[in-house]
């Protein structure tokens, strides 16, 4: 397997190959499972989507919290889980915290699930 077939991880080092090309290493499974587990909750997946699609690529908590019927501490908890999984990063500006998606993390997840078979069926979510 050439290094060109591998996707750089967040630190810029070779990470992982698609599942269909070779088995994952133990270390890769631990890291990937943490990210997939964080996205396995509907609230966290929606938060990730809201941040990623927000104008300018970043969102303040004040911009996204109105999309949920949840308390501010609950939203903060979910955002913390996404940060700890390496999917989001943030910065405090005054009294608000702004979040943005870490593109390399999404690329890593996408690459691991990609299929080497170009004729493979594509999942369409309506």
State the main characteristics.
126 residues, two-stranded antiparallel sheet, elongated
Structure commentary:
With 126 residues, this protein is of the alpha+beta class. The protein is 43% helix and 16% strand. The chain contains five helices and five strands; from the N terminus they run ββααβααββα. Strands 3-5-4 form a three-stranded antiparallel beta sheet. β1 (7-8) and β2 (14-16) form a beta hairpin. α2 (42-53) packs across α4 (72-84). It is elongated, with a radius of gyration of 16 Å. Mean pLDDT is 82; it is low at 1-14.
Structural class: alpha+beta
Write the element-wise H/E pattern from the N-terminal end onward. Answer: EEHHEHHEEH
Number of H- or I-type helical stretches: 5
The rough form would be described as elongated
Question: How helical, in percent, are the residues?
Answer: 40-55%
Could you give the distance between the termini?
36 Å
Multimer state? single chain
Beta-strand fraction estimate: 15-25%
The total beta strand count reads 5
The biggest sheet amounts to: 3 strands, antiparallel
What is the overall pLDDT average? 82
How is the largest sheet built, in terms of strand order?
3-5-4
């Amino acid at each position: 397997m050439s290094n060109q077939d591998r996707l750089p991880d967040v630190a810029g080092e070779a990470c992982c190959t698609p599942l269909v090309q070779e088995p994952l290493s133990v270390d890769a499974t631990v890291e990937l499972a943490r990210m997939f587990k964080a996205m396995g909750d509907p609230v966290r997946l929606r938060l990730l989507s809201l941040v990623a699609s927000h104008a300018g690529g970043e969102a303040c908590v004040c911009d996204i919290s109105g999309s949920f019927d949840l308390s501010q501490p609950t939203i903060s908890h979910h955002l913390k889980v996404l940060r700890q999984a390496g999917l989001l990063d943030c910065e405090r500006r005054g009294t608000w915290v702004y979040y943005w998606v870490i593109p390399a993390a999404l690329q890593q997840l996408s690459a691991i699930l990609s299929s080497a078979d170009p004729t493979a069926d594509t999942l369409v979510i309506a």
